[in-house]
C-alpha cells in the first residue's frame, strides 16, 4: 500500500474522523508515538527511535512489533527515521499523526518544514492531531474540500507570490504575502477552498472542530461591530 500512517509524540485526540482516516493503513510508530497507535487500536509494523520517552505498558503491549533502536545522541529525529522507513517501504503518501503540540516547539516546527519538503518531493503529506489538519501547499492550484464554516489559516514559510484564495469569507486575488505575515490567518471556508500561488512555501491548517453554526455575511458582521462600538461609546 502506498499510504502510510506515521505516529509521532505530539498531541492527538482520537476523533471519529481520525479513526476513519487511519483504518486499514500500514503504520510506523516513532518512539512515544506508539501510545497514539495504541489508543486508536492500531498495531504498527515497525517501531523506531531511541525509546527514551516510551512507557513500560507499551513496551509490553507491543513486544511482538519489530523494533529498530537508535542511540539518544544521533543526527536525526525519531520522526525523520520513521519517515525514511515509510518511504523505503514504498510510501507515496503520509498521514502524520501527533504532528502538533508536544513539549518541544523546535520539534513541532521541524515536522512542519519536513512535511513541506516531503510534499515538494512528490510525497502527498498530511499532518493531524485529530482536530487540526495541516496540508503543505504546492505551487499552482491546491483544492481543499472543507465544510462550510471551517476555520483555516495559511502559515507562510517564505514570501508567497501571486496568492489567490477563493471559496473563503475573505478571498485574495494574486496578492504578494511577505514571509511571516499574519494576513492569511483565521479565514473561514464557505465551501471548497482553492489556494493558488506562483512561488513560495506555505502550510494550510484547517481546524476541523470549529465549524460555525451558520455562515455570517461579512458586511452584516461589520455592521454589527459598528453598532456595538457606537453603543459602547454612548455608555
Distance between the termini: 65 Å
Approximate helicity band:
25-40%
Helix/strand order, N-terminal first: EHEHEHEHEHEEEEEEEEH
Q: Structural class, from helix and strand content?
A: alpha/beta
User: What is the number of independent domains?
Assistant: 2
**What's the oligomerization state?**
single chain
CATH architecture assignment of the largest domain: 3-Layer(aba) Sandwich
InterPro entries: Thi_PPkinase (IPR006282), Thiamin_PyroPKinase_B1-bd (IPR007373), TPK (IPR053149), TPK_catalytic (IPR007371), TPK_catalytic_sf (IPR036759)
Keywords: ATP-binding, Kinase, Nucleotide-binding, Transferase
EC number: 2.7.6.2
Domain Thiamin pyrophosphokinase thiamin-binding: 140-205
Give a written overview of the molecule.
The chain is of the alpha/beta class and 235 residues long. The chain folds into two domains: 3-132, Thiamin pyrophosphokinase, catalytic domain (Rossmann fold), CATH 3.40.50; 140-218, Rossmann fold (3-Layer(aba) Sandwich). It is built from six helices and 13 strands. A hairpin with a 3-residue loop joins strand 10 (160-168) and strand 11.
SSE layout and pairing:
Blueprint lengths: L2 E5 L8 H7 L4 E4 L3 H6 L6 E4 L6 H6 L5 E3 L8 H11 L4 E5 L7 H16 L3 E5 L3 E5 L3 E5 L6 E6 L3 E9 L3 E6 L9 E11 L4 E6 L10 H17 L1
Parallel strand pairs: 1-2, 1-5, 2-3, 3-4, 5-6
Antiparallel strand pairs: 6-7, 7-13, 8-12, 9-12, 9-13, 10-11, 10-12
Amino acid at each position: 500500500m502506498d499510504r502510510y500512517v506515521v505516529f509521532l509524540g505530539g498531541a492527538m485526540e482520537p476523533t471519529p474522523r481520525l479513526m476513519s482516516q487511519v483504518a486499514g493503513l500500514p503504520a510506523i510508530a516513532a518512539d512515544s508515538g506508539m501510545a497514539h497507535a495504541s489508543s486508536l487500536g492500531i498495531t504498527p509494523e515497525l517501531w523506531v527511535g531511541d525509546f527514551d520517552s516510551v512507557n513500560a505498558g507499551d513496551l509490553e503491549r507491543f513486544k511482538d512489533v519489530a523494533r529498530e533502536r537508535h542511540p539518544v545522541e544521533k543526527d536525526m529525529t525519531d520522526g525523520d527515521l520513521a519517515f525514511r522507513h515509510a518511504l523505503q517501504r514504498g510510501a507515496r503518501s503520509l498521514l502524520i499523526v501527533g504532528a502538533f503540540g508536544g513539549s518541544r516547539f523546535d520539534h513541532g516546527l521541524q515536522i512542519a518544514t519536513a512535511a513541506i519538503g516531503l510534499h515538494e518531493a512528490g510525497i502527498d503529506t498530511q499532518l493531524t492531531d485529530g482536530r487540526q489538519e495541516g496540508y503543505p501547499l504546492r505551487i499552482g492550484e491546491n483544492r481543499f474540500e472543507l465544510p462550510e464554516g471551517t476555520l483555516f489559516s495559511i502559515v507562510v514559510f517564505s514570501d508567497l507570490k501571486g496568492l489567490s484564495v477563493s471559496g473563503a469569507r475573505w478571498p485574495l486575488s494574486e496578492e504578494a504575502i511577505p514571509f511571516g505575515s499574519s494576513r492569511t490567518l483565521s479565514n473561514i471556508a464557505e465551501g471548497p477552498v482553492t489556494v493558488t500561488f506562483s512561488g513560495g512555501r506555505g502550510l494550510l491548517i484547517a481546524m476541523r472542530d470549529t465549524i460555525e453554526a451558520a455562515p455570517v455575511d461579512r458586511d452584516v458582521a461589520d455592521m454589527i461591530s459598528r453598532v456595538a462600538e457606537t453603543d459602547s461609546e454612548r455608555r
